[in-house]
Specification:
The structure holds two protein chains of two kinds. The longest helix of chain A has 21 residues, at 429-449. By secondary structure, chain A is an alpha/beta fold. Helices cover 31% and strands 27% of the residues of chain A. Chain B is an alpha/beta fold. In chain B, 42% of the residues lie in helices and 19% in strands. In chain B, helix 3 links the parallel strand 3 (56-62) and strand 4. The chains are: A alpha/beta, B alpha/beta.
Chain lengths: 533, 133
């Protein structure tokens, strides 16, 4: 027991589940026997408003400095406990929880559940005893301004979404004007018209500051207040912002392998009576991609509409027309566009007209004569340089690597930097816009709140133990540790996300972690193993 | 019997919660310890748990390539492989330690993992380091 710690234990009346898998009174008596504990109370439904005020009142009355909540899973309840803690005048993170419902009452049968509940509550008490108040600041101001980098549709939509939420936006573009997405990226004319209207509205929006023909050359600062250096006509322009959205322009092109140029293909009826073959990108949209994308189908439709007597063939191993793009696929079939399922990359022989040697899935080997052969390619030229500058790594497909595919899809390892994954799959304009909206809403969440939370369960270097081996600097997914001026590692608290990977790795054991220190984890394990040894 | 499960705060903890909410039953000999990320765990913690008499230890993190902390689960796996080697070398079977990857909706898989570890201890016998009355 550390000096002057006093622990209160709050047991929720529903901790045993609705059938009461164990006797709460017995549990209360067990917890009260611990020398570490000042008081134990059973609170009627701790998550209800009356339960909360009762908990606050109890904590205040007994003058404890931390507490243990024995209730259901802390997963969703933690913000609530923080509130209780703050209202009771304690450190907002000064509590431990014992999950008596999901990890005990619901999964074990009656006599065992009672024993396990005692173990779980003892573990939480032991952990709470070793709790050290972490540095914590939940009101760190955030610069209420966003910088969006990119010149295509994604950048435009992200800027528009943020501006509409009342946030001032700097849209930093490489080019003089927007790079408009090609027609075949849109599902239909209506979608295209709507996107174009948005982009037009954006250009005159009072909250949007267009920085044209500019290149970002520098990026510094900490999350909440970033500084960008933008080069424009030889001048360096500093831009301050609280969030950055990376939205490079996606270029989708159809590269001519044999025959007429793409411009001629789309602008005239030169193709009448001729055969055009469209192949999926071999390397353009992912290595070895053999999927016919919806945008290739749209391109095929465009060719077909321009010269109705031409024969248009799409070849690929599979068809990717996701969501409502399925209707494009059906429409294309009605228009007489031929889809050929092939197993391997076709071999081209001769010039225009050339012969494609393909392996059809059902017909076997075929030789297809074609006047024009085009291949879909996609590229985001600005992406690699943005990746380097902002420290957001790329995945093997050359796209931004974001934190998690579903829940944190556009959040990156750099806190406050959001990225649109423009090269993911075969994106249509609609997908790009969704990606941009996602990034914008993550940025808006940070900026509209105006403050950010810093600290809590973070890692901290003990300089006297540090040997500056760089292990933490290399391993951290968020780039939080740096070698400080004293030649020792230090962890930038604003960047630390509290994963503890560096803590487990550090060979000198020089990194301590608030909320799950070595001592706390050890104590939990020893308590769990008491009576075993 | 006592089995310690170190579970990450993200996918694995949610899977364990879901197992509870779905009313799956597993052995009460299993005690779970919550980690911020599987990558937080180091070899020493695991070895000390064995020294204290744990019959088996398992670590559960997010699915590979889907880790909440990018590659914490991969880092954890590396360390656990190393720890297994140490366990083998000191004569405690390395099979007493296992690393798993879970998605947050895999409550059944969580139960399977627990059942598997219990079965493993039944096969291998109790931890010889545990002194029993």
């Amino acid at each position: 027991m550390t000096d002057e710690t006093s622990i209160g234990v709050l047991i929720c009346s529903w901790a045993g589940g609705k059938d009461g898998a164990f006797d709460l009174q017995a549990l209360k008596d067990h917890a009260a026997r611990s020398p570490l504990v000042t008081f134990v109370a059973i609170v009627d439904r701790i998550c209800s408003s009356s339960g909360q005020s009762e908990a606050v009142e109890l904590l205040k009355r007994h003058k404890v400095d931390r507490f243990v909540v024995a209730a259901c899973s802390p997963g969703s309840k933690e913000p609530l406990y923080r509130r209780i803690s703050s209202l009771a005048g304690l450190h907002p993170l000064g509590f431990e929880s014992a999950n008596l419902r999901e990890q005990c009452a619901y999964v074990h049968d009656s006599p065992h559940a009672a024993e396990k509940a005692k173990v779980l509550i003892d573990m939480a008490i032991a952990k709470a005893d070793l709790w050290v108040p972490p540095p914590y600041e939940d009101e760190l101001p955030v610069t209420r301004r966003a910088a969006i980098i990119g010149d295509g549709l994604a950048a435009g939509i992200a800027a528009y979404e943020l501006a509409m939420q009342g946030i001032d936006v700097d849209l930093i573009m490489r080019s003089e004007g927007f790079e408009w997405p090609a027609d075949y990226l849109f599902e239909n004319r209506v979608a295209q018209h709507r996107a174009e209207q948005t982009m037009m509205a954006l250009a005159i929006h009072p909250r949007v500051n267009l920085v044209q023909a500019a290149e970002v050359v520098g990026f510094d600062g900490v999350p909440g207040s970033f500084g960008l250096m933008v080069e424009r006509y030889g001048d360096i322009l500093p831009i301050k912002c609280g969030a950055v959205v990376l939205a490079p322009h996606l270029e989708v092109k159809f590269k001519v392998l044999r025959g007429t140029q793409v411009g001629a293909l789309l602008s005239s009826d030169l193709q009448d009576g001729k055969r055009v073959v469209i192949l999926p990108g071999a390397t353009g949209s992912g290595v070895g991609c053999n999927c016919v994308s919806a945008r290739a189908v749209r391109f095929a439709q465009t060719v077909k509409e321009r010269s109705r007597d031409s024969q248009v063939m799409l070849m690929g191993r599979e068809m990717r027309a996701l969501g409502s793009c399925e209707s494009i696929y059906e429409e294309a079939q009605r228009q007489g566009i031929i889809f050929t399922r092939i197993e391997q990359v076709p071999v081209l022989e001769g010039e225009s007209p050339c012969t494609l040697k393909v392996m059809d899935a059902s017909l076997g080997e075929l030789a297809v004569k074609a006047d024009t052969v085009v291949m879909e390619t996609s590229d985001a030229p600005q992406l690699p340089s943005l990746s380097r500058l902002f420290g957001v790594p790329m995945d093997q497909k050359g796209d931004f690597l974001t934190l998690e595919t579903r829940l944190r899809s556009t959040e990156t390892m750099q806190r406050g930097v959001f990225a649109c994954r423009v090269r993911m799959g075969n994106m249509m304009a609609e997908d790009l816009m969704l990606e941009a909206k996602s990034a914008a809403s993550f940025a808006a969440e940070l900026l509209t709140k105006g403050t950010m939370e810093v600290g809590g369960a973070v890692a901290e270097v003990e300089p006297e133990k540090c040997s500056a081996c760089l292990a933490c600097v290399r391993i951290c997914p968020y780039g939080a540790p740096v070698i400080g001026e004293a030649g020792k590692a230090q962890i930038v608290m604003q960047k630390c996300q509290g994963c503890g990977i560096c803590v487990g790795l550090c060979p000198s054991k020089a990194i301590a972690m608030y909320g799950s220190s070595d001592a706390q984890l050890r104590a939990q394990a020893s308590v769990a193993l008491q009576g075993v040894r | 019997m006592r089995i310690i499960g170190y579970i990450c705060d993200h996918a694995a903890y949610s899977a364990a919660d879901l197992a509870g909410q779905s009313g799956l039953r597993y052995s009460s000999d299993v005690v779970l310890i919550r980690l911020p990320c599987a990558g937080r765990l180091d070899i020493i913690q695991v070895l000390k748990a064995f020294r204290d008499g744990a019959d088996a230890v398992f670590v559960a993190g997010c699915l590979e390539k889907n880790c909440h902390h990018v590659y914490g689960n991969i880092e954890a796996r590396k360390r656990m492989e190393q720890a297994k080697g140490i366990l083998d070398a000191i004569g405690l079977n390395g099979k007493r330690l296992e690393m798993f990857n879970l998605a947050s909706n895999q409550d059944f898989k969580f139960k399977e993992i627990v059942d598997m570890m219990v079965k493993r201890v039944e096969e291998l016998g109790r931890n010889p380091l545990a002194v029993r009355a």
